[in-house]
Amino acid sequence: MKKIMIRLTAFMIIPISLFLTSCDAEYFYDNTPPSPPTNVVTITGDNWVEIRWDHNRERDIAGYNVYYNYTYEGRYTLIGSTTNNYFIDYEAVNGVTYFYAVAAYDYDGNESELSYDYVKDTPRPEGFNRSVFDYLTSPNKAGYDFSAYKVLPFDSWDTDFFFENYYGTYYVNVWEEADIQDMGATYDIYDITEAPIYGWVPLYEGENVKYVEAIPGHTYVIWTADDHYAKIRIKSIQGNMMVFDWAYQTVRGERELKRGSREIIPTGESRELRKKY
């Protein structure tokens, strides 16, 4: 970082030797802003969004300011500051899309431009440790409605999926207007970041449901009949009961289930289209 150096000569009185001497004292004033933070990403939550980025390499970084807007272009509003390389927006509302940008500032009060990463996020509801039961033995407690966050009968118009124990082999079923896909074994439900485009289970001839085998530790993405995406992760299956975590995107057609998208925008374009309040 550039420095403007002001050189002053000071005179000090040394009582012991009783003579005057001079020494040079250098004072540095920094008027160059830091570089913008890089690799900004978001993590989607339930009424919250976490924003993360790489720490700047400059040694005099004092902290970071986090901004948001409802569109990529326009003026961004400051929502908070931090000395860490992450910030959680607890004021985010489910179903609303936010665009985020981060600026670094140093100890002299110089602030960088907004980060050049194109980052947006749409928080969505989620839930943990919900239970459904085999539709053959407990038909009124076998289905789940993501939009209402509740258990329903397996054949309700609002049911998005239902559980089945077929002679000791377990299945997650959706009706023919919906789609489902097994995303494989995952550490937790956050491992699956967005809904896939291809690979949905086909509807077999003569059947009115689509189904995949229910396996504990696997995460499944469901494309509902009313064009919403959701995911469940099976935590356990005990007899006729399946325990699962879930997340549901309230914005129709939005495939994002965890992380926001990120795209690098040319420097000049970033300066021109985005401003800080």
Radius of gyration: 28 Å
How is the largest sheet built, in terms of strand order?
20-9-8-5-6-21
Main pleated sheet: 6 strands, mixed
What structural category characterises the helix and strand content?
mainly beta
Helix and strand element order: EEEEEEEEEEEEEEEEEEEEHE
How many distinct folded domains? 2
First-residue to last-residue Cα separation: 25 Å
How would you describe what is shown here?
The structure is a single chain. This protein has 277 residues and is mostly beta strands. It folds into 2 domains: 41-122 and 260-276, Immunoglobulins (Immunoglobulin-like); 126-248, no CATH class. It contains 1 helix and 21 strands. It has one helix at residues 267-273, and strands spanning 4-14, 19-29, 41-44, 49-52, 61-69, 74-82, 86-89, 98-106, 117-121, 126-133, 143-145, 150-152, 161-166, 169-175, 179-185, 209-213, 218-223, 229-238, 241-248, 262-264, 274-276. A 6-stranded mixed sheet has the order 20-9-8-5-6-21. The protein has a 5-stranded antiparallel sheet with strand order 10-19-18-17-15, with no helix packed on it. The longest helix is centred in the C-terminal third of the chain and has 7 residues, at 267-273. It is elongated. Mean pLDDT is 87; it is low at 1-25.
Which labels suit this protein?
277 residues, mainly beta, Immunoglobulin-like, 2 domains, 6-stranded mixed β-sheet, 5-stranded antiparallel β-sheet, 3% helix, elongated, disordered N terminus
Secondary structure layout:
Layout (H helix, E strand, L loop, with lengths): L3 E11 L4 E11 L11 E4 L4 E4 L8 E9 L4 E9 L3 E4 L8 E9 L10 E5 L4 E8 L9 E3 L4 E3 L8 E6 L2 E7 L3 E7 L23 E5 L4 E6 L5 E10 L2 E8 L13 E3 L2 H7 E3 L1
